Protein backbone atom coordinates (compact mmCIF):
# COMPACT_ATOMS: atom_id res chain seq x y z
CA UNK A 1 0.00 0.00 0.00
CA UNK A 2 1.31 3.41 -0.96
CA UNK A 3 1.48 6.14 1.65
CA UNK A 4 -0.97 9.01 1.25
CA UNK A 5 1.78 11.25 -0.12
CA UNK A 6 2.90 8.56 -2.56
CA UNK A 7 -0.68 7.92 -3.68
CA UNK A 8 -1.30 11.61 -4.31
CA UNK A 9 1.97 11.91 -6.23
CA UNK A 10 1.09 8.91 -8.39
CA UNK A 11 -2.28 10.48 -9.23
CA UNK A 12 -0.63 13.85 -9.99
CA UNK A 13 1.83 12.17 -12.36
CA UNK A 14 -1.02 10.44 -14.18
CA UNK A 15 -2.92 13.69 -14.66
CA UNK A 16 0.20 15.47 -15.95
CA UNK A 17 0.83 12.64 -18.40
CA UNK A 18 -2.77 12.89 -19.65
CA UNK A 19 -2.45 16.60 -20.31
CA UNK A 20 0.87 16.05 -22.07
CA UNK A 21 -0.75 13.37 -24.25
CA UNK A 22 -3.40 15.79 -25.50
CA UNK A 23 -6.21 15.75 -22.94
CA UNK A 24 -7.90 19.11 -22.32
CA UNK A 25 -8.69 18.13 -18.73
CA UNK A 26 -8.28 15.07 -16.51
CA UNK A 27 -8.59 13.68 -13.03
CA UNK A 28 -7.12 10.59 -11.37
CA UNK A 29 -8.35 8.62 -8.39
CA UNK A 30 -6.24 6.18 -6.38
CA UNK A 31 -7.99 3.76 -4.02
CA UNK A 32 -6.51 1.02 -1.86
CA UNK A 33 -8.11 -1.37 0.64
CA UNK A 34 -6.34 -3.85 2.90
CA UNK A 35 -7.95 -6.13 5.47
CA UNK A 36 -7.42 -9.13 7.69
CA UNK A 37 -10.38 -11.31 8.66
CA UNK A 38 -10.54 -14.28 11.00
CA UNK A 39 -13.62 -16.54 11.02
CA UNK A 40 -14.48 -19.32 13.46
CA UNK A 41 -17.27 -21.87 13.69
CA UNK A 42 -18.30 -24.16 16.54
CA UNK A 43 -15.33 -23.02 18.56
CA UNK A 44 -12.74 -23.87 15.93
CA UNK A 45 -10.77 -21.72 13.52
CA UNK A 46 -12.39 -21.82 10.09
CA UNK A 47 -10.60 -19.22 7.97
CA UNK A 48 -7.94 -16.52 8.05
CA UNK A 49 -7.94 -14.16 5.12
CA UNK A 50 -5.65 -11.25 4.38
CA UNK A 51 -6.15 -9.15 1.27
CA UNK A 52 -4.81 -5.96 -0.22
CA UNK A 53 -5.85 -4.38 -3.47
CA UNK A 54 -5.10 -1.05 -5.06
CA UNK A 55 -6.45 0.61 -8.19
CA UNK A 56 -5.90 3.86 -9.99
CA UNK A 57 -8.35 5.32 -12.45
CA UNK A 58 -7.93 8.05 -15.05
CA UNK A 59 -10.76 10.12 -16.51
CA UNK A 60 -9.88 12.58 -19.24
CA UNK A 61 -11.62 14.92 -21.66
CA UNK A 62 -10.89 15.82 -25.26
CA UNK A 63 -13.30 18.62 -25.98
CA UNK A 64 -16.70 17.30 -24.90
CA UNK A 65 -15.64 13.70 -25.38
CA UNK A 66 -14.43 11.67 -22.43
CA UNK A 67 -13.14 8.24 -21.46
CA UNK A 68 -12.31 6.46 -18.22
CA UNK A 69 -9.84 3.64 -17.67
CA UNK A 70 -8.30 1.98 -14.63
CA UNK A 71 -5.47 -0.36 -13.66
CA UNK A 72 -4.26 -2.24 -10.60
CA UNK A 73 -0.64 -2.22 -11.78
CA UNK A 74 1.17 0.87 -10.46
CA UNK A 75 4.20 0.36 -12.70
CA UNK A 76 5.02 3.66 -14.49
CA UNK A 77 5.30 1.88 -17.86
CA UNK A 78 1.84 0.38 -17.41
CA UNK A 79 0.40 3.77 -16.48
CA UNK A 80 1.95 5.38 -19.56
CA UNK A 81 0.15 2.82 -21.72
CA UNK A 82 -3.00 3.57 -19.75
CA UNK A 83 -2.81 7.25 -20.70
CA UNK A 84 -2.33 6.63 -24.41
CA UNK A 85 -5.21 4.17 -24.50
CA UNK A 86 -7.54 6.51 -22.63
CA UNK A 87 -6.82 9.44 -24.99
CA UNK A 88 -7.51 7.21 -28.00
CA UNK A 89 -10.79 6.07 -26.45
CA UNK A 90 -11.91 9.62 -25.71
CA UNK A 91 -11.33 10.72 -29.29
CA UNK A 92 -13.73 8.01 -30.47
CA UNK A 93 -16.37 8.62 -27.79
CA UNK A 94 -19.62 10.52 -28.48
CA UNK A 95 -19.84 14.13 -27.35
CA UNK A 96 -21.50 14.76 -24.01
CA UNK A 97 -22.49 18.39 -23.33
CA UNK A 98 -22.82 17.74 -19.58
CA UNK A 99 -19.48 15.99 -18.96
CA UNK A 100 -16.52 17.76 -17.40
CA UNK A 101 -14.64 18.38 -14.20
CA UNK A 102 -16.30 20.11 -11.27
CA UNK A 103 -16.51 23.94 -11.42
CA UNK A 104 -13.05 25.26 -10.60
CA UNK A 105 -14.34 28.02 -8.35
CA UNK A 106 -16.08 25.50 -6.10
CA UNK A 107 -13.09 23.19 -5.43
CA UNK A 108 -11.90 22.61 -1.88
CA UNK A 109 -8.98 24.99 -1.52
CA UNK A 110 -8.33 25.05 2.22
CA UNK A 111 -6.79 22.25 4.22
CA UNK A 112 -9.22 19.30 4.50
CA UNK A 113 -10.80 18.90 7.94
CA UNK A 114 -9.44 16.21 10.24
CA UNK A 115 -12.17 13.63 10.82
CA UNK A 116 -10.26 11.22 13.11
CA UNK A 117 -10.73 8.28 10.75
CA UNK A 118 -7.40 6.54 11.37
CA UNK A 119 -6.76 4.33 14.39
CA UNK A 120 -3.19 3.51 15.35
CA UNK A 121 -4.21 0.08 16.66
CA UNK A 122 -3.94 -2.83 14.24
CA UNK A 123 -4.81 -6.12 15.97
CA UNK A 124 -2.82 -9.22 15.12
CA UNK A 125 -4.64 -12.27 13.69
CA UNK A 126 -4.35 -14.01 17.06
CA UNK A 127 -6.23 -11.16 18.71
CA UNK A 128 -8.89 -11.23 16.01
CA UNK A 129 -9.29 -14.97 16.58
CA UNK A 130 -9.83 -14.45 20.30
CA UNK A 131 -12.46 -11.81 19.62
CA UNK A 132 -14.25 -14.01 17.05
CA UNK A 133 -14.29 -16.96 19.47
CA UNK A 134 -15.61 -14.78 22.28
CA UNK A 135 -18.47 -13.53 20.12
CA UNK A 136 -19.46 -16.99 18.89
CA UNK A 137 -19.12 -18.55 22.35
CA UNK A 138 -21.43 -15.92 23.82
CA UNK A 139 -23.99 -16.53 21.08
CA UNK A 140 -23.87 -20.32 21.49
CA UNK A 141 -24.22 -19.97 25.26
CA UNK A 142 -27.72 -18.48 24.94
CA UNK A 143 -30.27 -21.18 25.93
CA UNK A 144 -32.07 -22.38 22.82
CA UNK A 145 -29.19 -21.84 20.39
CA UNK A 146 -28.42 -25.16 18.71
CA UNK A 147 -26.01 -24.44 15.88
CA UNK A 148 -23.73 -21.76 14.52
CA UNK A 149 -22.95 -20.21 11.18
CA UNK A 150 -19.85 -18.72 12.78
CA UNK A 151 -18.32 -15.65 14.28
CA UNK A 152 -15.67 -13.33 12.98
CA UNK A 153 -13.51 -10.31 13.51
CA UNK A 154 -11.67 -8.09 11.07
CA UNK A 155 -9.44 -5.06 10.82
CA UNK A 156 -8.84 -2.97 7.73
CA UNK A 157 -7.34 0.15 6.26
CA UNK A 158 -8.29 2.18 3.18
CA UNK A 159 -6.74 5.15 1.36
CA UNK A 160 -8.04 7.53 -1.28
CA UNK A 161 -6.22 10.17 -3.30
CA UNK A 162 -7.82 12.45 -5.89
CA UNK A 163 -6.09 14.91 -8.24
CA UNK A 164 -7.62 17.09 -10.97
CA UNK A 165 -5.94 19.05 -13.73
CA UNK A 166 -7.59 22.31 -12.68
CA UNK A 167 -6.17 22.61 -9.21
CA UNK A 168 -7.38 20.04 -6.69
CA UNK A 169 -5.18 17.51 -4.89
CA UNK A 170 -6.15 15.69 -1.72
CA UNK A 171 -5.93 12.38 0.08
CA UNK A 172 -7.27 10.73 3.21
CA UNK A 173 -7.18 7.36 4.93
CA UNK A 174 -9.43 5.41 7.27
CA UNK A 175 -9.35 2.29 9.40
CA UNK A 176 -12.08 -0.17 10.34
CA UNK A 177 -12.72 -2.79 13.01
CA UNK A 178 -15.61 -5.27 13.01
CA UNK A 179 -17.01 -8.18 15.01
CA UNK A 180 -19.99 -10.40 14.17
CA UNK A 181 -21.75 -13.66 14.99
CA UNK A 182 -24.56 -15.64 13.33
CA UNK A 183 -26.30 -18.58 14.99
CA UNK A 184 -29.35 -20.83 14.75
CA UNK A 185 -31.90 -21.74 17.38
CA UNK A 186 -34.36 -24.64 17.54
CA UNK A 187 -34.37 -27.99 15.76
CA UNK A 188 -35.20 -29.40 12.33
CA UNK A 189 -37.63 -27.48 10.14
CA UNK A 190 -38.32 -25.09 12.99
CA UNK A 191 -34.80 -23.69 13.17
CA UNK A 192 -34.38 -19.92 13.05
CA UNK A 193 -31.31 -17.85 12.27
CA UNK A 194 -30.25 -14.36 13.32
CA UNK A 195 -27.06 -12.37 13.73
CA UNK A 196 -25.44 -9.31 15.27
CA UNK A 197 -22.47 -7.21 14.25
CA UNK A 198 -20.70 -3.94 14.91
CA UNK A 199 -18.26 -1.91 12.81
CA UNK A 200 -16.30 1.18 13.84
CA UNK A 201 -13.33 3.30 12.80
CA UNK A 202 -11.52 3.06 16.17
CA UNK A 203 -11.12 -0.15 18.15
CA UNK A 204 -11.94 1.70 21.38
CA UNK A 205 -15.49 2.30 20.08
CA UNK A 206 -16.20 -1.36 19.28
CA UNK A 207 -18.80 -3.19 21.37
CA UNK A 208 -17.49 -6.03 23.51
CA UNK A 209 -17.43 -9.30 21.60
CA UNK A 210 -19.54 -11.13 24.20
CA UNK A 211 -22.22 -8.44 23.95
CA UNK A 212 -22.38 -8.80 20.16
CA UNK A 213 -22.59 -12.58 20.42
CA UNK A 214 -25.23 -12.41 23.14
CA UNK A 215 -27.43 -10.22 20.94
CA UNK A 216 -27.11 -12.68 18.06
CA UNK A 217 -28.16 -15.61 20.23
CA UNK A 218 -31.07 -13.78 21.86
CA UNK A 219 -32.38 -12.62 18.51
CA UNK A 220 -32.30 -16.14 17.06
CA UNK A 221 -34.13 -17.65 20.06
CA UNK A 222 -36.78 -14.92 20.00
CA UNK A 223 -37.71 -15.94 16.44
CA UNK A 224 -38.63 -19.53 17.36
CA UNK A 225 -42.12 -20.90 16.71
CA UNK A 226 -43.29 -18.18 14.31
CA UNK A 227 -46.93 -18.05 13.29
CA UNK A 228 -48.71 -17.01 10.09
CA UNK A 229 -51.17 -14.15 10.35
CA UNK A 230 -54.18 -13.08 8.36
CA UNK A 231 -53.87 -10.37 5.75
CA UNK A 232 -54.98 -6.83 6.50
CA UNK A 233 -54.07 -3.17 6.81
CA UNK A 234 -52.16 -2.38 9.99
CA UNK A 235 -49.36 -0.31 11.55
CA UNK A 236 -45.79 -1.49 10.99
CA UNK A 237 -43.03 -0.80 13.51
CA UNK A 238 -39.59 -0.97 11.87
CA UNK A 239 -36.65 -2.03 14.02
CA UNK A 240 -33.71 0.43 13.67
CA UNK A 241 -31.65 -2.33 12.06
CA UNK A 242 -33.87 -2.34 8.97
CA UNK A 243 -35.68 1.01 9.15
CA UNK A 244 -32.68 2.61 7.52
CA UNK A 245 -33.67 0.93 4.25
CA UNK A 246 -36.53 3.43 3.93
CA UNK A 247 -33.96 6.23 3.95
CA UNK A 248 -32.07 4.40 1.22
CA UNK A 249 -35.15 4.44 -1.00
CA UNK A 250 -35.55 8.17 -0.39
CA UNK A 251 -31.94 8.82 -1.37
CA UNK A 252 -32.31 6.74 -4.55
CA UNK A 253 -35.16 9.02 -5.55
CA UNK A 254 -33.34 12.33 -5.09
CA UNK A 255 -29.90 11.71 -6.64
CA UNK A 256 -29.16 13.98 -9.58
CA UNK A 257 -28.72 11.30 -12.25
CA UNK A 258 -32.18 9.85 -11.49
CA UNK A 259 -33.76 13.31 -11.62
CA UNK A 260 -31.94 14.20 -14.83
CA UNK A 261 -33.11 10.96 -16.44
CA UNK A 262 -36.64 11.58 -15.09
CA UNK A 263 -36.62 8.11 -13.57
CA UNK A 264 -37.61 8.91 -9.98
CA UNK A 265 -40.88 8.74 -8.05
CA UNK A 266 -39.93 12.12 -6.52
CA UNK A 267 -39.48 14.12 -9.74
CA UNK A 268 -41.80 16.96 -8.71
CA UNK A 269 -41.19 16.80 -4.96
CA UNK A 270 -38.58 19.55 -4.50
CA UNK A 271 -39.74 21.84 -1.70
CA UNK A 272 -42.63 19.53 -0.88
CA UNK A 273 -43.51 18.28 2.60
CA UNK A 274 -42.83 14.56 2.10
CA UNK A 275 -42.88 13.75 5.82
CA UNK A 276 -44.56 15.03 8.94
CA UNK A 277 -43.08 18.28 10.26
CA UNK A 278 -41.45 16.33 13.09
CA UNK A 279 -39.14 14.46 10.71
CA UNK A 280 -35.68 15.73 9.71
CA UNK A 281 -33.03 13.70 7.87
CA UNK A 282 -29.40 14.84 7.90
CA UNK A 283 -26.40 13.94 5.74
CA UNK A 284 -23.20 14.58 7.71
CA UNK A 285 -19.97 13.70 5.88
CA UNK A 286 -17.91 15.54 8.51
CA UNK A 287 -18.91 13.44 11.52
CA UNK A 288 -15.73 12.44 13.40
CA UNK A 289 -15.08 8.70 13.13
CA UNK A 290 -18.12 8.25 10.86
CA UNK A 291 -18.28 5.12 8.73
CA UNK A 292 -18.77 7.19 5.56
CA UNK A 293 -17.08 10.42 6.58
CA UNK A 294 -15.04 12.18 3.91
CA UNK A 295 -13.38 15.61 3.74
CA UNK A 296 -14.11 16.07 0.01
CA UNK A 297 -16.36 14.43 -2.54
CA UNK A 298 -15.48 12.38 -5.62
CA UNK A 299 -14.78 15.51 -7.68
CA UNK A 300 -12.77 17.52 -5.14
CA UNK A 301 -15.62 19.66 -3.81
CA UNK A 302 -15.90 20.39 -0.09
CA UNK A 303 -18.45 18.40 1.87
CA UNK A 304 -20.79 19.81 4.50
CA UNK A 305 -23.53 18.79 6.91
CA UNK A 306 -26.92 19.24 5.31
CA UNK A 307 -30.55 18.63 6.26
CA UNK A 308 -31.93 16.76 3.26
CA UNK A 309 -35.36 16.67 4.88
CA UNK A 310 -35.92 19.72 7.07
CA UNK A 311 -39.03 19.47 9.26
CA UNK A 312 -40.62 17.24 6.67
CA UNK A 313 -39.65 19.26 3.58
CA UNK A 314 -37.33 18.02 0.81
CA UNK A 315 -34.65 20.73 0.56
CA UNK A 316 -32.85 19.73 -2.65
CA UNK A 317 -31.33 17.12 -4.91
CA UNK A 318 -27.99 15.32 -4.40
CA UNK A 319 -25.91 16.49 -7.36
CA UNK A 320 -22.63 15.63 -9.00
CA UNK A 321 -21.34 18.09 -11.59
CA UNK A 322 -22.74 16.34 -14.68
CA UNK A 323 -26.29 16.03 -13.36
CA UNK A 324 -26.11 19.57 -11.97
CA UNK A 325 -25.25 20.94 -15.42
CA UNK A 326 -28.05 18.96 -16.99
CA UNK A 327 -30.53 20.38 -14.48
CA UNK A 328 -29.15 23.92 -14.62
CA UNK A 329 -28.08 23.79 -10.97
CA UNK A 330 -24.87 23.74 -8.93
CA UNK A 331 -23.19 20.54 -7.64
CA UNK A 332 -23.81 19.88 -3.96
CA UNK A 333 -20.63 18.02 -2.90
CA UNK A 334 -22.29 14.61 -3.20
CA UNK A 335 -20.24 13.19 -6.09
CA UNK A 336 -19.38 9.57 -5.43
CA UNK A 337 -17.12 7.33 -7.51
CA UNK A 338 -14.74 4.44 -7.76
CA UNK A 339 -11.52 4.26 -9.69
CA UNK A 340 -13.16 2.57 -12.65
CA UNK A 341 -15.93 4.98 -13.62
CA UNK A 342 -17.31 8.47 -13.81
CA UNK A 343 -18.83 10.09 -10.73
CA UNK A 344 -22.41 9.53 -9.70
CA UNK A 345 -24.09 10.97 -6.62
CA UNK A 346 -24.63 9.61 -3.14
CA UNK A 347 -24.75 10.37 0.55
CA UNK A 348 -22.32 9.82 3.41
CA UNK A 349 -23.37 9.40 7.06
CA UNK A 350 -27.14 9.82 7.18
CA UNK A 351 -29.44 9.88 10.18
CA UNK A 352 -33.03 10.70 10.99
CA UNK A 353 -33.42 13.00 13.97
CA UNK A 354 -35.17 11.30 16.91
CA UNK A 355 -38.78 11.98 17.74
CA UNK A 356 -40.30 12.56 21.18
CA UNK A 357 -42.00 9.23 21.95
CA UNK A 358 -40.32 6.08 23.23
CA UNK A 359 -40.48 2.92 21.12
CA UNK A 360 -42.95 1.52 23.67
CA UNK A 361 -45.16 4.58 23.34
CA UNK A 362 -45.11 4.23 19.53
CA UNK A 363 -46.76 0.85 19.78
CA UNK A 364 -48.89 1.43 22.89
CA UNK A 365 -52.10 2.09 20.93
CA UNK A 366 -51.51 -0.60 18.28
CA UNK A 367 -54.36 -3.10 18.61
CA UNK A 368 -52.89 -5.34 15.93
CA UNK A 369 -49.68 -4.66 14.04
CA UNK A 370 -46.19 -5.91 13.27
CA UNK A 371 -42.74 -5.23 14.64
CA UNK A 372 -40.52 -5.99 11.62
CA UNK A 373 -36.91 -7.07 12.18
CA UNK A 374 -36.01 -8.51 8.77
CA UNK A 375 -36.82 -7.56 5.18
CA UNK A 376 -36.44 -9.98 2.29
CA UNK A 377 -36.17 -9.38 -1.44
CA UNK A 378 -35.89 -6.22 -3.50
CA UNK A 379 -39.50 -5.44 -4.43
CA UNK A 380 -39.11 -1.66 -4.44
CA UNK A 381 -39.60 0.40 -7.61
CA UNK A 382 -37.93 3.81 -7.20
CA UNK A 383 -39.39 4.96 -10.52
CA UNK A 384 -43.02 4.49 -9.43
CA UNK A 385 -42.58 4.37 -5.64
CA UNK A 386 -44.33 1.01 -5.29
CA UNK A 387 -43.10 -0.94 -2.26
CA UNK A 388 -43.53 -4.67 -1.57
CA UNK A 389 -41.10 -6.78 0.44
CA UNK A 390 -41.05 -10.06 2.26
CA UNK A 391 -40.69 -9.62 6.01
CA UNK A 392 -40.51 -11.34 9.37
CA UNK A 393 -40.67 -10.09 12.92
CA UNK A 394 -43.22 -10.11 15.72
CA UNK A 395 -46.96 -9.67 16.11
CA UNK A 396 -48.12 -6.74 18.24
CA UNK A 397 -51.46 -7.04 20.03
CA UNK A 398 -52.87 -4.34 22.30
CA UNK A 399 -49.51 -2.57 22.41
CA UNK A 400 -47.50 -5.67 23.38
CA UNK A 401 -45.13 -7.83 21.30
CA UNK A 402 -46.60 -11.32 21.63
CA UNK A 403 -45.34 -13.79 19.01
CA UNK A 404 -42.78 -14.29 16.27
CA UNK A 405 -44.19 -13.97 12.73
CA UNK A 406 -42.78 -15.14 9.40
CA UNK A 407 -43.73 -15.60 5.73
CA UNK A 408 -45.47 -12.27 5.30
CA UNK A 409 -45.29 -9.45 2.78
CA UNK A 410 -45.67 -5.77 3.60
CA UNK A 411 -46.69 -3.35 0.86
CA UNK A 412 -47.52 0.28 0.22
CA UNK A 413 -46.34 3.31 -1.72
CA UNK A 414 -43.21 5.11 -0.58
CA UNK A 415 -44.84 8.56 -0.65
CA UNK A 416 -47.72 7.29 1.53
CA UNK A 417 -45.25 5.56 3.84
CA UNK A 418 -43.17 8.73 4.25
CA UNK A 419 -46.24 10.79 5.13
CA UNK A 420 -47.37 8.21 7.68
CA UNK A 421 -43.95 7.78 9.34
CA UNK A 422 -43.32 8.62 13.00
CA UNK A 423 -39.84 8.27 14.60
CA UNK A 424 -39.21 7.23 18.20
CA UNK A 425 -36.61 8.87 20.44
CA UNK A 426 -34.13 5.95 20.49
CA UNK A 427 -31.62 7.04 17.85
CA UNK A 428 -28.17 5.48 18.19
CA UNK A 429 -25.23 5.93 15.80
CA UNK A 430 -24.14 2.41 14.85
CA UNK A 431 -24.26 2.28 11.05
CA UNK A 432 -23.64 4.45 8.03
CA UNK A 433 -27.39 5.18 7.94
CA UNK A 434 -29.03 5.47 11.35
CA UNK A 435 -32.69 5.80 12.29
CA UNK A 436 -34.64 5.36 15.50
CA UNK A 437 -37.51 2.89 15.74
CA UNK A 438 -40.05 3.90 13.08
CA UNK A 439 -43.81 3.52 12.91
CA UNK A 440 -45.64 3.57 9.57
CA UNK A 441 -49.41 3.39 9.67
CA UNK A 442 -51.71 1.97 7.00
CA UNK A 443 -49.48 -0.61 5.33
CA UNK A 444 -50.95 -3.68 3.68
CA UNK A 445 -49.85 -7.01 5.12
CA UNK A 446 -50.26 -10.21 3.13
CA UNK A 447 -50.16 -13.27 5.37
CA UNK A 448 -51.88 -16.62 5.43
From TrEMBL:
Signal peptide boundaries: none
Region (Disordered): 136-156
A GO biological process held by the record: proteolysis
Residue intervals of the Metalloprotease TldD/E N-terminal domain: 34-90
Domain Metalloprotease TldD/E C-terminal intervals: 231-447
A Pfam family this chain is assigned to: PmbA_TldD_2nd
Domain Metalloprotease TldD/E central: from-to ranges: 121-224
UniProt record similarity statement: Belongs to the peptidase U62 family.
Name of this protein: PmbA protein
Source organism: Sphingobium fontiphilum
